[in-house]
Amino acid sequence: MWLAPSPAVLRSPLIQEYVSSDRRRWEMGEVKHILLAKFKDGISQQQIDDLIKGYANLVNHIEPMKSFKWGKDVSIENLHQGFTHVFESTFETVEGIATYISHPVHVEFATRFLDHLDKVLVVDFKPTAVDP
Q1: Which of 8, 56, 107, 124 is the most exposed place for a label (fewest CB within 10 A)?
Q2: Where is the Stress-response A/B barrel domain (predicted)?
Q3: CATH number assigned to the domain covering 29-125
């Protein structure tokens, strides 16, 4: 049986900070930057690993970039259209993505990264929660 937390727990500073930071994130308009990629044939796994590490390292150099995640396609639907890798970056605002795109560290990395891709698709979106 699940018991609801007491009002005292819900008023605790830790819970209030969590709720407040979550609210601020949504008010600022969190934006996801999704890049789908297919690496060129002949690119070694070591080269791919190095490029992924370079991509992940952008979060340490470009302030508006808040997080980075990646993964390989594991779908059984076979609708990937040849894309093999997915990269997700999180930004607080659309303006943050504009800053990221024009940042010299990103420009240098993107030039090298894109040179190793056979296909690429980029989508930026603001996540929207749906109440069940």
Answers
A1: 8
A2: 31-125
A3: 3.30.70.100
Residue 68: which residues within 8 A CB-CB, separation 6 or more? Answer: 55, 56, 58, 59, 87, 88, 89, 90
Does residue 103 carry a catalytic annotation? yes
Beta-strand ranges (E) seen in the chain are 31-39, 65-72, 85-91, 117-125
Tens-of-pLDDT digits for all 132 residues of the chain? 334 444 554 465 655 565 555 545 444 689 999 999 999 999 999 999 999 999 999 999 999 999 999 999 999 999 999 999 999 999 999 999 999 999 999 999 999 999 999 999 999 999 998 888
Phi, psi of 64 (to 5 degrees): -65, -20
Please check whether residue 127 is in contact with residue 22, taking contact to mean a CB–CB distance below 8 angstroms: no
Burial label for 113, CB within 10 Å (0-12, 13-18, 19+), is buried
pTM of the model: 0.76
Is 18 a residue of the active site?
A: no
Domain boundaries, the chain: 29-125
User: Given 33, 55, 85, 100, which residue is catalytic?
Assistant: 100
